[in-house]
Amino acid sequence: MTAITHSELSAATWRTVSLATLATWLGGSFVLDAVLMPTLSSAGMMTQPGFASAGYSLFWVFNHLEMLCAALILTSLLVMQNAGSRLARWVIPAALGLLAITMIDTYSLTPLMSALGLQLDFFASATPMPAEMNQLHAGYWLLEVLKFALGSAVLISSYRSIGNKSDLA
Questions:
Q1: DSSP assignment, residue 83?
Q2: How far apart are the C-alpha atoms of 72 and 45, rounded to whole Å?
Q3: Collapsing DSSP states into helix, strand and coil, what is residue 68?
Q4: 11-31 helix and 131-160 helix, angle to the nearest 10 degrees
Q5: Any residues with CB less than 8 A from the CB of 162 and at least 6 apart, and which?
Q6: SS3 of residue 5 by DSSP
Q7: Residue 73 near residue 24, CB atoms below 8 Å
Q8: pTM of the full predicted structure?
Q9: Is 121 helix (H, G, I), strand (E, B) or coil?
Q10: Of 79 and 42, more confident
Q11: What average pLDDT does range 62-76 have in this prediction?
């Protein structure tokens, strides 16, 4: 903690880190959720027998990048607060919520959804999607909406606080 407390980087630099990370993360999530997955679904790739393992590989990488982004955002906000920046009281809990969402996605939803979608009978032509998968998809989309809401709120709050004179040191 001493290294971060006595860092040469100013609060303005850490704000830039948090803004850039949030914007990149939310943009990447939007592309994945609104472009890539619907395209794969409309192309019929989600009905292919090997899609569960390919999807798991894709989401494994993306979820771990999301955790890295959430941790970097939380770190930058904590450093800014420690440096004397005036942050809204809800910003740190919101960043903790973002980290919690990424951990739920990474360690709970993605493995469960991949396990349900994995086809173990290689001789069967096609198996219908299990009913539990719809519940997991609903949970995933609920977490995604919450992630976009929290991330956008933190992004807007951080952007609006740019003009604070105490943050320029």
A1: T
A2: 34
A3: helix
A4: 150
A5: 12, 15
A6: helix
A7: no
A8: 0.85
A9: coil
A10: 79
A11: 97
Which long-range contacts (C-beta less than 8 Å, at least 24 apart) are formed by 87-93? 87/157, 87/158, 87/161, 88/157, 90/153, 91/154, 91/157, 91/158
| Confidence (pLDDT) at 168 | 43
Among the listed residues 60, 143, 130, 59, the one whose alpha carbon sits nearest the alpha carbon of residue 98: 143
pLDDT above 50 (res 94):
yes
**Distance (Å, whole) CA 163 – CA 152:** 19
Number of residues assigned to the chain: 169
Alpha-carbon distance 81 to 78, whole Å?
Answer: 5
8 falls in which pLDDT band (50, 70, 90)?
A: low
DSSP letter assigned to residue 1? -
The amino acid at residue 9 is L
